[in-house]
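As promised in the previous annual report, we have extended the structural survey to additional targets. Below is the entry for CUE domain-containing protein.
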Amino acid sequence: MSAVYCGSKRSYFDDTPSPPPSSKRFRCYSPSNPPSWSSSPSSSLDQLRTAFPHLELTVLVEALEEHGSDLNAAMKSLYALVSAEEERAAGNKEKADAAGAAFAALPASADDWVSLLVREVTQSTGTDDAKVRTERVLEALEKTLSARAHQEAGKKFQEESVAVQQQVEALIKDNTVLKRAVAIQHERQKALEDANQQLEFLKQLVPQYQEKVRNLEVNNYALKLQLEQMEHGNSMMPQRFNPDVF
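The corresponding structure token record, generated without further manual editing, is:
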């Protein structure tokens, strides 16, 4: 921002915008303009809840208790409370807007600050005035640097937060993949254990079947010997002829 000075002795900071006059804003009804209902509420508390829907129930109950269940007195008290809160909020907003406008009007570069300091000193009316003007410039510079540092810190924090969030999302994704891999490995390990158990069971059956095979071989050999003996005995018996043939 550049400013034109034509021999004026006014300070640069005398031209900074001042906060505009506060304006009162009411969201609720005013005491002179009470609300109207299509149907009469059943109790004083219902009327207060209708007139002040944004207030907590405990606040309405306390207002009634403080004024001895006097509805009009309780409503006036709540109107005053709401008005004070809105005026305070409006004042804070106006101060913030004025501070933002004043901050935007300050020099942006180092050369501009030097020029402003020189101009303030040269336009001073004396040593005391120059000292006051210098203090104003230095104070404004300090506030500007502090505000910019906070702004940069907030921006950096936001960037770091985004980076951390991305890292967290990547870790969550990797964790999901890892869990899936562990589950698959667990299933394979279980299948391998089942196969090993089946193999051990079959190994235990092998000796039993081998013993059965040996017993069958022995029995087969014994039957073979008996069969040979029977055949040999039949061949040694004398042959008998039928007498009717002769």
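The first helix runs from residue 44 to 51. Residues 1-8, 17-42 have pLDDT under 50 and may be disordered. These points will be discussed at the next consortium meeting with the crystallography subgroup.
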